[in-house]
Design brief:
Elements: E1 2-6, H1 9-21, E2 27-31, E3 37-39, E4 42-44, H2 46-55, H3 73-81, H4 91-105, H5 110-120, E5 126-129, E6 136-141, E7 153-155, H6 156-162, E8 169-175, H7 186-192, E9 195-198, H8 203-212, H9 216-222, E10 227-230, E11 233-234, E12 237-238, H10 243-249, H11 256-263, E13 269-272, H12 280-285, E14 289-292, H13 300-312
Parallel strand pairs: 1-2, 1-9, 2-5, 9-10, 10-13, 13-14
Antiparallel strand pairs: 3-4, 6-7, 6-8, 11-12
Bound molecules: ligand FO1.
Ligand FO1 is lined by residues 7-9, 35, 46-47, 49-50, 65-66, 87-89, 93, 157, 160-161.
Length: 315
Amino acid sequence: MLVALAGGVGGARLLSGLVQVADPGDVVAVVNTGDDLTLHGLHISPDIDTVVYTLAGLHNRATGWGVATESWTVMAELETLGGETWFRLGDRDLATHLYRTQRLGEGVPLHQVTAEIARARGIGVRILPMSDDPVRTHLVLAEDAGDLPAGTEVPFQTYFVSLRHAVPVRSVRFDGATRARPAPGVLEAIGEAETVIVCPSNPVVSVGPILAVPGVRDALIARREQVVAVSPIVAGAALKGPADRLLEELGHTSSVVGVARVYAEWVGTLVIDEQDADVADAVEAEGVHAVVAPAVMTNPEIAASLAAVVLDAPR
Ligand code: FO1
C-alpha cells in the first residue's frame, strides 16, 4: 500500500503520475483540508476537489483547480444580485459543494462524503481528508494589504485568492488542529505503507496542516526511512503559488536544502530536480538522502516517471 500526503495542484499532479505506475486501489491519498471554507452556506474543500477532479480527468488544466468545460451562470446571476463572487464557483463545481454540504448536514463525516464523491467519479484511489474535524489555516499579514492593516489574521482563501497571496506573512496557524483527530484510516495507512510519499505541495500551508493533526507527525517519524518527499522548490523557486515566499517569510530558506531542513525529522529521502543536482550533497548533509530526477511535471509522462523514481528511491 502507498500513502501520499497531498495538497492541491502539486499533489494532484504527482497522484495522476502515481496511478499510471501503481494500482490505484493500492494508493491512499491523505489530503489537506486547511484550505476549506464555508461560502454561500456551502462547505468547500478545495484540495480534496482538486485531487478528485484531477484523478477523474475532469480538472481545469489551465488553473489546476475546478472543472474543465465549466460554465459560470450561477456566478453571473449572483453578481447581478450583489452576492459574493470573489471565490469563483463554476456550475459543475457547485454540484460537488451542494452534495457535500447536504451529506455533512445529514451527519455523514467528511471522510465518508469524500469516499462517496470519489466512487461517483469512478476513482480507485482511496481519498482521505487529513481529519473529519475542522482545521483551518490562518495567516497573519506582515504588511498592510488594501484596507487590512499589518497584523491582521486572515483565513487561507482570503490570503490566497482575495489578496492573491501578494502580501508577506508574519505567521501561520492551523485553527482547530490541537482538537482534531486524524480521519479513520490515516494513521493505519501511514503505519502499513511500503512507501509514504510527500507530494510537491506547499510545505507551509499544504503539508503543514497535515503534520499539525495530532498523531500524524509521530506516525511519520516512526516510518522515516519509508518517507520520500518530492521537493516543491526547484532552483530556489516554487513551481506554482507562494511556497518560496512563505518559506522565506517564516524564517526558512527557499531551496531544496531549506526544504530538507524543514522535513528532516520525518522524511528520509528528498527527490530534487536536475537543476538542483549541484546541491545534492548539501541535502545529504541535512541527514536526508537526495535523489536527483526530472521533478517538473509539465506532462503526464514526466509525472509517471517521477512517481516511478519515488517508488524506487533507495532508502
Ligand atoms: N483559486 C483562485 O485563485 N481563484 C478562485 O476564484 C478559486 C476558486 C476555487 C474554487 C474551487 C476550488 O476547489 C478551488 C478554487 N481556487 C481558486 C483554488 C483554491 O484557492 C485552492 O485552495 C488553491 O488551489 C490552493 O490549494
